[in-house]
Amino acid sequence: MITYIFGAAHIDNYEYLEKIDFSDSFIICADGGIRHIERLGLTPAVYIGDFDSSVNDEKYSNKIVYPAEKDDTDLGLAINYAAEHGLNKCVAIGCLGGRIDHTYANFSLIKYAYEKNVQLKLIDEKSCIFAVGGHCEIRKEGYKYISIFPCGEKATGITLRGFKYSLADAELDHSFPLGVSNQLIEDKAYIEVKNGLLLIMMVKE
């Protein structure tokens, strides 16, 4: 089962979301994400946050309220909830764009989720961002560019096959963006990292 987490970032176009079948999924609303959920006619299973970007009214009885002064962001709270309840496949919507500091924090939370055994993807109408540890295969699926960065200071033993720019037992360092703007030249491609974690950014244009 996929868990969808809705954040508060602005969404320009809901068309791609209207194509998703949410019927058999678990839905977590992170504070201001409620406006996206209501726009799509959905009901959250859990409504979580400090309610500084939405109204804490009595419409929803399934709220988990945290104080505004806390270490976790609302997405971080949602990840913690998912980890504690065995919801290990999560897709976050409304978590890209908007304030650049929040977007950067959300990239960091991909690694945070991975360490809690939660596979977290951040998506919008043009992007899909996730972490890879070990190895995986990916497909084009309409994405034009695939950028690969170390999720941390360094990742080593990196192999890329099926890409325009291949690698074999290579190293990526956080100080130089060698992995930006690669492309798939086959329908599917192979990624392996022996040490560390990779942040994968798939972009349509």
Overview of this protein structure:
This protein is α/β, with parallel strands linked by helices and 205 residues long. It has 4 helices and 11 strands, in the order βαβαββαβαββββββ. The chain has helices spanning 15-18, 34-39, 74-84, 100-115, and strands at residues 3-6, 26-30, 46-49, 63-65, 89-93, 119-123, 127-139, 145-150, 154-161, 167-173, 188-203. Strands 1, 2, 3, 4, 5, 6, 7, 8, 9, 10 and 11 form an 11-stranded mixed sheet that branches. The longest helix is centred in the middle third of the chain and has 16 residues, at 100-115. The two termini are 29 Å apart. The model has no long low-confidence stretch (mean pLDDT 91).
Summarize the structure.
The protein is an alpha/beta fold and 205 residues long. The protein has helices spanning 15-18, 34-39, 74-84, 100-115, and strands at residues 3-6, 26-30, 46-49, 63-65, 89-93, 119-123, 127-139, 145-150, 154-161, 167-173, 188-203. Helix content is 18%, strand content 37%.
